[in-house]
């Protein structure tokens, strides 16, 4: 009797499972049939070339990405405008990680004037392949370009597309960039009405056009089983008050890499990271309505995620072949959902947030 009752209960609940099991089966079948980076094996960093843009940005710069990559046996190429800082960082890493057969290298690169970007391929392990591209460039002070016999570097300004190709020469084989990390960022504070059009142009140069050029020039050096890591922001999915130029540039940034996924290389692995607030000193370089650096962080950034924690999470997601990573609190994820489900409510909430913004409160004083 008990057996019959148990079978009856099981049959009742099994009927409820038919639809979700069928949907999951269709999902797995489509994933198997459709092309994409999920078919690649897990990304490993040993004997791979990792290229980082904007490597000297923030209070704790490229070492956040460079250290774990070096520990995993990668050849790391750091690019930025502050050559003095890059040289010092490379020397420190050489002393700390002597077990890695590949010395960390650096190259001058201004994301607003990318000259000879393609030459960076020559720095790869095989002289042509960049396995992972991390677009991480930010706005920093210009450093002097000095000769050195220890590290290899070349001139590159990411807002003027010249000589970008020469970065390939730094790869292990002189041609392959296995990992490219796109992380350039410049922010702003100010109302749409007050902000100079030149600020909009500068933000777009750094946050969008520079990445377009670097990615275009190095694309043929990145194999499908390598990785482009596009580090964006939650503001690439929804705009917030008094950050109009930054939000617009990050929307364009994400749309560019979404389009790249859909073109002639559907198996190319691209990871888009939508980051929340980060405690990196990023806000101190944000521009005001006239294009002057603010020189201070806001309270949200000071409470943000540490760059070391963020870098480890991003490299983990890349290794797992993820294509989207929202690295932000639950409240940010709910806001992204509301943008689709109930946009009117979201805009009302963001209007209320804007009334408490530092930009408004400082003008009221």
Automatic annotation (TrEMBL):
Pfam families: adh_short. This is Oxidoreductase, short chain dehydrogenase/reductase family protein. Transmembrane segments: none annotated. Keywords: Oxidoreductase. It comes from the Eukaryota. It comes from Dictyocaulus viviparus (Bovine lungworm). Gene3D superfamilies: NAD(P)-binding Rossmann-like Domain. PANTHER family: DEHYDROGENASE/REDUCTASE SDR FAMILY MEMBER 7B, DEHYDROGENASE_REDUCTASE SDR FAMILY MEMBER 7B. The lineage of its organism: Eukaryota, Metazoa, Ecdysozoa, Nematoda, Chromadorea. The keyword Transmembrane helix does not apply. Belongs to the short-chain dehydrogenases/reductases (SDR) family.
